[in-house]
């Protein structure tokens, strides 16, 4: 197995004097000032970094920088608005609703909605609600 060596962080010129040999490069922070850099600062700027990043295949996380400018879908598309309904029913009715939903592999919500739609059709046909039980 070959030993992998890390690239040198500093050139050999940095270690030529005895006082800097092996010294911590961050030991002297006297020139550090927090805040924005002046405009004439020679360090890398966005204009210098962007072409290098694009050339190497880096894709920005900012969606405004995506080439196709298509919005990305997030999660499921919104469905119709819903409201919460809480009903107090007898045990037989609750068990029947559960059984119908299980037999047809529907959710309780879908089962309730279809039951209401069926009742609506019956009432439209002129069926007397008192005879439904």
TrEMBL record:
Which species expresses this protein natively?
A: Tistrella arctica
Q: What is this protein identified as? A: Ribbon-helix-helix protein CopG domain-containing protein
Composition bias (Basic and acidic residues) maps to 25-72
Disordered, as annotated region: 1-84
């Amino acid at each position: 197995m070959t030993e992998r060596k890390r690239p040198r962080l500093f050139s050999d010129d940095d270690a030529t004097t005895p006082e800097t040999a092996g010294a911590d490069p961050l030991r002297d922070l006297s020139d550090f000032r927090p805040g924005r850099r002046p405009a004439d600062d020679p360090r890398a700027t966005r204009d210098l970094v962007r072409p290098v990043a694009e050339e190497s295949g880096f894709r920005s996380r900012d969606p405004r920088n995506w080439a196709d400018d298509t919005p990305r879908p997030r999660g499921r598309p919104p469905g119709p608005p819903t409201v919460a309904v809480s009903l107090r029913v007898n045990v037989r009715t609750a068990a029947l609703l559960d059984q119908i939903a299980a037999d047809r592999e529907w959710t309780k919500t879908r089962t309730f909605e279809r039951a209401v739609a069926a009742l609506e059709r019956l009432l439209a046909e002129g069926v007397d609600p008192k005879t439904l039980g």
